[in-house]
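Q: What structure does this chain adopt?
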Amino acid sequence: MKRSAVASQAIRPLLVGLALVASGCPYVSRAEIEAQLELRDDDGDGVSVSDGDCDDLDGTVYPGAEEVPYDNVDNDCVDGDIRDVDNDGHEGCLLQGGVCVEGDAPDCDDNDPALFPGAQDTPYDGVDSDCRGNHDYDLDGDGYALAGTDSGELDAYEAASGLSAERGDCVDTNTTVYPDAPGEEPYDGVDTDCDGTNDFDVDGDGFVAPADDSATARAALDRYLEGLGEPIPSDDQLDCDDAVAEVNPGEDEVWYDGVDADCDGANDYDQDGDGYEQGEDCSDDPTLDPDAALRSPEAVETLSDDIDDDCYEGADAPWGGADTTWTNPRSLRLVHVGERFTLGALLDTFESPFSLVDDAGFGLLNFDVGGGNAPSTDERLFLRDVSGDGFALLPTAADVEVGFARVSVNTMATTVFRYSLESVGPTQLLDSLPTVAGSTGVLRPTVLDLDGAWAWACGEGQFLSADQTEPLVVVARTTLPSEPLTCFTEPTLGDATVCVDSGCQTFRSDGGTLSPIAGREGYLITEAVRSGDVWTFIDDGLLLVEGATVPSEPADHAAFVADGGDVFGLLQGPDGLELLHGPDGGPFERFTVDPGVDGEVVEVAIAAADDRIFAVVRSDADDVRWATWRR
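A:
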């Protein structure tokens, strides 16, 4: 009953009393009437108004009665109706016009002070602590409960709450991430469709890859793996093609298919890794040839095997020097000194990628004994104003003794003869050598040979010796019956031989006199080349070698050298240009070589180091070429 109705019933007896007084009944004061009313117990609940009954017309309402929450009645006449049972500051009923009505109350559980709007909610415990009414196992509200939740626990929760959600959400804090969600993008670190694949392993082969080669992309990959608690791979463990499952660092390489299957970065057409692909490499498969990586167009050909190491026409080697232009090269000389081969020749002009010489002189070229095939060099020495063909090189312990002859005609017709011991370097110019004066007459030498302090020159129908064993240079000269073909030192110091078309004569130089001695009478030597302790001659068209045991055979030009019991030779004969090698005395292996020169080969030279030989040829078309082999 409403309080307005109760008040009207309480006033009614007062009005009756007033009416009785007015009709002559005894007078009763207002206060007395009100006192009498306070003592009444109209609802028979045993509690009068004066005792605190706040509604004497309702027997269920009186002090001490059990308060019933949310009935809009103050049952115990204390503080009105209870609307916040758990005293958490939030009402447990829905109010409209100050009256509790049917509907969802703000406090979803008014018996638990820990549950109220705005309370800290712990997800996945089955309790709606903040009274939002959301699914406690679907935090982001995308309709999918978090994957991994116990199915029985989830079923019981949904049966009790009346809520439902699909299963399998992999990220319950992102509404765009759930099973089969659209918009899956690789390499963003998010498994948008919750299919469980690694976002940096698109092809699913178990190897991750960054989005690109940038440092930012690699950092994103590392952060993603750290979040998963997985190890960070090194660069060689990354997938090089994340779109193909058969390409990753764990695959076995299939060569020559154009695919780097194992992601090692190697050229798929260069199995042995020597820098040359299968089509240009003569050996590229280490499973068939364990030394395949040692055989390529850059390798140096080895004489002692039957393998084409340099991929160049069998046992022949690539020949260098095609980038040089010589004008009138002559007196070709080659020696081995320390860690280099030194090639020298007289010339009128010279041009290469490294230097240009327009004046007549001699040039010296240095080559590293450990250099590559078809070796190149940029070390040049030149001396200008050299006349004639007299030029020679003599190796010493670490230097090269350079000898040359120059015609100097003056009023006394003095012959100027120079030679000097000089170190060969890249920029040094040999233009201040000591002068040795000869007798009257001009010698224009065709050949010069050196042996320690001795020098021998021949030409212009003359033969000359210069001995510098004494403080003063002693020069001896003799005339010849015809133009000399060659002259050369003999093994005995102070002895030398000069040859003309009618034969050869050996001389001994003594105190400025050249005395003929027994030696090579009857020989018809047209060419002589000295390499160390080996003398190579062309005698009446036949090969003649002294200092090493080599069979004689027809030859036009030849040079031999011996080292460590092995003999190496370059021979121009009826079968063309051949390289010979073998132990002293033979048998010798031989094969044809092609230096690629224009014209005919007219001069050859050869030198040997511990593990290399070096060969040089000159043609009558002014071509000079060189090549090297491993011993």
